[in-house]
Design a protein that fits this description.
- InterPro entries: DUF6081.
- The protein is mainly beta.
- The chain has one helix at residues 67-71; strands spanning 2-3, 7-10, 23-25, 27-29, 35-37, 44-48, 51-56, 72-78, 82-83, 89-101, 112-119, 124-130, 135-141, 158-164, 173-180, 185-190, 193-198, 207-215, 232-237, 240-243.
- Helix content is 2%, strand content 48%.
């Protein structure tokens, strides 16, 4: 991470194969002591012009009983979480491109590229998903494995998706998420335009691990995962500017 006065540039993709510098493979520890990795074994990773390109075709990862573990197919976590200013604002800005392969028409959740801001101290998730002809902003507090979600007199667990089609389909788009801790407010921007504002956030978020993902979001069935049918995706990300 390269520091400026009030800005961190989170990139350094040329070191991504080390999984020990800026980025590592994501996942969660399981109750049996094992670790579920978000790693597709046939993923193709290319770093060029400071941009990260990852192709998976087809998806192969799934989980039969835990939804979030089924959703994330291939995902990187930032090694160091970004601390949120106690009485201020933090903003995350990046460019991203999504080119699904063989996904179902008009179904964003059959395969998408993501940036997920994950607070593992509270269960918060602030995300953007980009698919073939839709994108979604996501505002959530979730019971991630091993995470203790603070109690509140409001709804404790939630995940609110908001879909839209006003973006450059299968091309680069600029995304931004801004969290104001003192005002309990989150703003989502696409190509410089505010597309969503969430006020009265019920808990204070403390820090964000940045995740870069190739994902699906298909409900588990009584028989297990329903997320695989031979589809894949190409995802690309620019370095991320984090401003305080």
């Amino acid at each position: 991470m390269k520091k400026h006065q009030n800005e961190i540039v989170l990139g350094n993709f040329h070191s991504i194969l080390t999984e020990s510098e800026t980025w590592k493979i994501g996942g969660f520890p399981l109750p049996d002591g094992s670790f579920h990795e978000f790693r597709e074994p046939e993923a193709v990773v290319i770093v060029r012009n400071d941009e990260l390109y990852v192709r998976v075709n087809p998806f192969t990862k799934s989980h039969p009983s835990v939804q979030f573990l089924d959703n994330a197919k291939h995902m990187y976590y930032s090694n160091d979480p970004i601390k949120v200013p106690q009485d201020g604002t933090v903003s995350f800005q990046w460019k991203m491109r999504s080119r699904p392969i063989g996904t179902n028409a008009n179904d964003l959740y059959d395969g998408f590229v993501s940036v997920n801001l994950l607070d593992f101290t509270t269960g918060a998730a602030l995300d953007f998903f980009a698919g073939n002809d839709q994108y979604a902003s996501v505002y959530a507090v979730l019971p991630f494995p091993g995470v203790s979600v603070p109690e509140t007199d409001k709804t404790r667990y939630f995940c609110i998706f908001k879909e839209d089609q006003e973006f450059n389909q299968r091309e680069w788009n600029e995304f931004e998420i801004t969290y104001n801790r003192s005002a309990d407010e989150v703003k989502f921007l696409v190509n410089g335009n505010i597309v969503r504002t969430e006020k009265d956030v019920p808990i204070k978020f403390n820090e964000f691990t940045v995740a870069l993902g190739l994902m699906t979001e298909k409900d588990l069935s009584p028989k297990g995962s329903t997320s695989l049918h031979g589809q894949g995706i190409i995802g690309e990300w620019s370095p991320m500017k984090v401003s305080f």
